[in-house]
Structures are given as structure tokens and as C-alpha cells.
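Notes from the 1:1 (GR / supervisor)

We went over the backlog. Supervisor wanted to see one worked example end to end before approving the batch request, so GR pasted a single chain during the call. The sequence is below; no edits were made to it. Supervisor asked that the structure be written out right there so they could see what the output format looks like.
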Amino acid sequence: MDRERIAAAGVVALFLAFAVIAASQRYTVPDPWKLYVTTVREYMAAGMRGDSTALARHSATAQPPAWVLDATRRQRAMVAGWVRGLRSGTGQRRGDTVAVLLWADNVMGCSHLSSVSALLLNHSSSPRLLAISSPCVDRRAVPGLPW
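Structure output shown during the call:
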């Protein structure tokens, strides 16, 4: 084969690769709970930094800041693991609230099956936490959370 045919075949192969990538992304279903996972992870990161302003801004009640600061004090490594690896599990919308059950793999001392539960006030792009809990940290579940 001469160089022109090789170059043409390369251009065609590149075009086909882009077409396959574009087609596969077109049919990808987005994670409906991603916003809430991001909110909880950022909230826990603010708790680890001791950022009371961010905690107050993203809370709708007094329970979440108290919980995340206590959890950070008692189980800092576990909370750090959640900040890095927390991902969505399942959730349920109830009126203007959303209850989500989140998990993270490879967090020492906590099963990935039930890592964190959160109840959020659903304000479209900026949900605020109403309650947060984890069986890995708490002795009793917070009422209204799914575990």
C-alpha cells in the first residue's frame, strides 16, 4: 500500500472511532442522584475542614453540622474515605425532600452496603441537608432516613 491509502484508511478509522464514541455517549443514562452525592461529599469535606460557614449554608436544620463534626472527630479516617469515594446507591423523592442511601467501597470499618443516609431539601441546583446518618458512626438511626 502506498502512503496515500494508509493515510486515507487512518482518517476513516479515526472518523469511525469518533462516531462510535459519540453514539455510545448519546445513550448513556445519567445518574439521577449525582447532585445529591456531590452535595453530601462536599458537605463532609467542609466538615473535615471545620468550615462552619459552608456547613450552615448547606444545612436546613441543626442536625447535619453537629453530626458531621462529631463523625469527623470520632472517625476522621472513615469520613475522609467517604469524601473520596462516596457514590450513589438509591434514593426516593418525597415532595420537596429527597432521601438517599449512599455507599463507598474500601472504607475501613464500614460496610459498603450502608455507608451514609441523607435527607435533603430539594432546591434544584443547591439542595440542603435536613439530616444525615450512618450505621458505621451512629448507634441509632435518625428518624426519616432509609436505614
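Supervisor's comment: Helices lie at 3-26, 34-49, 52-57, 63-74, 76-85.
Batch request approved.
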